[in-house]
Amino acid sequence: MSFAKLLTPASVAVIGASTNPDKAGYAVLNNIITGNFPGPVYPVNPKADEILGKKCYKSLAEIPGEVDCAVIVVKRDQVVPVLKEAIDKGIKAVIVITAGFAETGEEGKKLQREISQIARQAGVTLLGPNCLGLINPVHRFNASFGQAMDDAGHIAFVSQSGALITAIQDIAANNRIGFSLLVSMGNKAALDEVQFLENLRNDDNTRVITAYLEDISRGQDFMRVAERLGKQKPLVILKSGRTQAGARAASSHTGSLAGADAAYDSAFERTGVIRAESIEHLFDVASALAYQPLPAGDRMAIVTNAGGPGIMMSDALELAGLKVAKIDEETSTKLLQILNAAASVHNPVDVLGDANGETYGKAIDILLASDSIDGLVVILTPQKMTDDVGTANEIVRVSKKYKKPVLACFMGANIIAKGVSILRENRIPQYPIPERAAKTMNEMVSYARYKARQLRVVERFAVNRNPVIKILRSYRYRNMFEIGEFDAKAVMKAYNFDVPRGMLATTAGEAVRFANEVGYPLAMKISSPDILHKSDVGGVRIGLASAGAVEDAFELMMLRIKRRMPEAEIRGMLLEKMAMGGKEVILGMKRDPQFGPMLMFGLGGIFVEVLKDVTFSLAPVTAEECLSMIQSVKTYKLLKGVRGEKPVDIDAIVLNLQRMSQLVMDFPEIEEIDINPLKVGQEGDGAVVVDARIILTKELGQ
Question: Would the CA dihedral through 152, 156, 162, 164 be positive or negative?
Fold first, then answer.
């Protein structure tokens, strides 16, 4: 695979070049020529002798010499023969602009698979089909039917949407944001985001990689590449489809609560990806990361010429998770020497409405020199005496002296337009409102922390896999996919979960004998593969305190359930010694089709049923990540103890999450797990699995 011939070709041919300005074949050729591509450009059209001043060839075979890259802009049915012609010519990089493939139905999917296979077998790097093309401003290569090429910069943008690139170009031009590369991946028949990320990881022209993605088809590969990439340069992704339901309906709590987007959130957090909320947010963050140094900490200073906006910025910084720095005495003294007596030398530093550019510059210089400050936001409001041009020039000059991020917040429009233009020309990120500047600074701090994070260490425990193998094999052999509570708890026990002593009784006499042996009180639950929710059919009794109560409960439950569900297979009654006290939490797992097993944690009872107060993380997990899951739920304070209650055994929950992580990594045939509830005692008392269910994948079970 040759990315060099795709991104930086020495020569290019456009097959389907057109003389009609309204056709994509004309636009692509025109963009390549007017973009001052440095090598030979060969239009291919059997019906034309010359297009846009370039000699036109009847076929690729007629072109003299080698061609590095072919751009195909022909009708769909002609793509396969043209691709084969390009391979015969020895071309190693192909961009298929043509649409009408997988996005149109089965026939299109078949054709797309064909061109993918042809390219793969020939070792050809294939971009598309159904794409806008690519633009490499550094190499002066605009092989697209998008906008004209702007000046080069240090931000790469990889997109599944071609139309979005044209909008991005317009926004970027207005804000003086330069690109190192713009790529429309289209249908991703061969090249996808994973390959582009891997290639851009070592691209010296790219400081920040941004992307618009609708899906990630190779989740595990993406995570491996993104994790390596994140230690070198930032990755900012706008992922659409946040509100879509999961790929299939799920019967477990975990499955129903885990929408597809939860896996993306977890994958991005794990790998240091910054998730953009909008196009605006994406480029707010990308421009700052590309052109400003990372902050060493979260202590921020504010310089303003108006009190109100300074207060707004203080609120915005703290709400974003940052600290409004306490200015040290030495720095305050220096500020007093250069500012008006009425000015404020506390954070935010108010230089007053009559401050000129020189005053701003001195204040910025003093603040950036302070060891108690990690970053700075400069606010300017357009008052009668405001010097936006002078202030902008001073921000540019002074910021170059320090390795600390400086963001500008020039609030206004036409009056401060010249100053904003100077900031943008000199790559000083400019935001019209405090909230956008604060959110951007917080993303910079978070990314700096990710880069400094130590390597993950996933602990493995000594377990007994054999009972699990036997149980899963038994269910799969019988073509059964839901493992009931009794066998599910046997699986848990093999992985050293604390499971109450219990037995499956088939007669009232067996139930009584077991009850007398283990003691009271007991819980009794129906065991049936046909009954998903036992309590809904009266299949659960708790607090059984005597032999008579056990016998009566057994017989009455059997009678009622047979009347309500005569077709249900009843295997008996599960009896267990009740776990007393503690708080109920839920642990779960749902296997995501892209990213693999995704763990869930939440409080039990109404907190999961009604409030849906749960959090997710992809397996395998570290102890630190498990603790972060637990601390992320809104009701975490209840676990830590309120109104005199003692805290629960958080360490036991962490340990159980780790054991579940290992279990689902060891056995990929497990599709879903619910431990609901896990009853957690006070610190040091551990946690007990009260109820559990396991669902197997049908694909492996058949």
Answer: negative
